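User: Teach me something about this protein's shape.
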Amino acid sequence: GLTKKEVRNAIANLKKTGEIMHEKFLNASLVTVVNYEMYQEEADLNDEIKGTQRAHEGHTKGTRRAPNEEYKKNIYNAQTTSFDAKMMFKEFWDLYPRKVSKKKSEETFLKKIKDEETYERLMNGLKAAVNEWKTEKTQQKFIPHASTWLNHERWKDEALNASEESVQTHEEGYVIL
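Assistant: First, the predicted structure itself:
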């Protein structure tokens, strides 16, 4: 069997190479295989036997089978065509008025934002919150840290959602409702 440290290292390596996504919850973890379908082969009995033999050969030689060209192309396409969460965080951070704990805020942001739809809702909620803070002349110390705002999913707050449809950005960067 594997030790806990070996499992953690294996998961870390798979995350680093983009082969899995790993989400931690209070009492559990969710591991998702990225591009799972690409690892599944349509096979008849002969192909299954060959695949098993290849796997055994690779393990006995201590080598890993190199990804095929189609796999590499699909990974490249996924990286270039899918939404860029890090770039989205930069846009979020540029708009967020209280610049504290950027690293923690980015980690939280990347956990919360899984698709463009969520990002759009978050940014609309943030624009409404920024407008509210400006309108109310909220002191900087009373604006929550970005990581707190994200963890509590404040973009879903009822007061903000009511005005979300009428959000417009002024050329100076604040929001007009």
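Now, about its shape. Residues 168 and 176 are 5 Å apart (CA to CA). The beta strands are 20-24, 29-33, 168-169, 175-176. If you'd like, I can walk through any region in more detail.
User: That's plenty for now, thanks!
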